[in-house]
Design a protein that fits this description.
This protein is mainly alpha-helical. The chain is 63% helix and 0% strand. The chain is built from six helices and no strands. Helix 1 packs antiparallel against helix 2, helix 1 runs antiparallel to helix 4 and helix 4 runs antiparallel to helix 5. It is globular, with a radius of gyration of 17 Å. It starts with 20 loop residues before the first helix and ends in an 8-residue tail after the last helix.
Length: 172
């Protein structure tokens, strides 16, 4: 029966109804913990198989989910930090010799710990705790060797496309 089938997407991705912000944040807190756990499982694979593209993609997808669902519940700084981590993985996955080297794995473990702690603080404070994700975003950007940019959710698709498409000729 359909009632026994699992949901296709985390509940945190559902559109909130007016007045459901607190409920949506509670769902986000629960789902974020699950998404971080899934990313940690993929990291376990990468410890032994750093070139496992499926595991790298799972980590990228986790940061993507954390970005989108946190922004939906008004946690923009959290979303911006997750966005920076997602962009780091987009850049690494776009490389011909994509691999989660020790530096990337170390950063990712720290980033997942920081995001998980941030969720715990938000959960304990009812979503009112403050946290600055700029340092995490800066570390992610430094691993990409690009200056820190202000993330724009509308540009996510453009950034990914520019990373995966050959550069246009620079000749004038």
């Amino acid at each position: 029966s359909e009632a026994s089938q699992p949901a296709a997407a985390p509940a945190a991705l559902a559109q909130p109804a007016p007045g459901d912000d607190d409920d949506m944040r509670e769902i986000f807190f629960e789902e974020a913990a699950e998404v971080v756990a899934q990313a940690r499982e993929a990291m376990g694979v990468l410890e032994h198989e750093p070139r496992d593209l499926e595991a790298m993609t799972a980590v990228r997808r986790a940061f993507h989910t954390l970005k989108g669902s946190s922004r939906m519940v008004g946690l923009r700084e959290f979303g911006d930090a997750a966005w920076a981590c997602e962009q780091l993985y987009n850049a690494r996955l776009a490389l011909a010799d994509a691999a989660a080297n020790a530096e990337l794995r170390g950063f990712t473990a720290e980033a997942l710990n920081e995001l998980a702690t941030w969720v715990e603080v938000l959960t304990a404070s009812g979503g009112n705790g403050s946290h600055d994700g700029l340092a995490l975003a800066e570390r992610a950007h430094s691993l990409r060797n690009v200056p820190v940019a202000q993330p724009d959710p509308d540009e996510d698709a453009d950034v990914l496309a520019s990373m995966t498409e050959p550069e246009a000729s620079e000749a004038s």
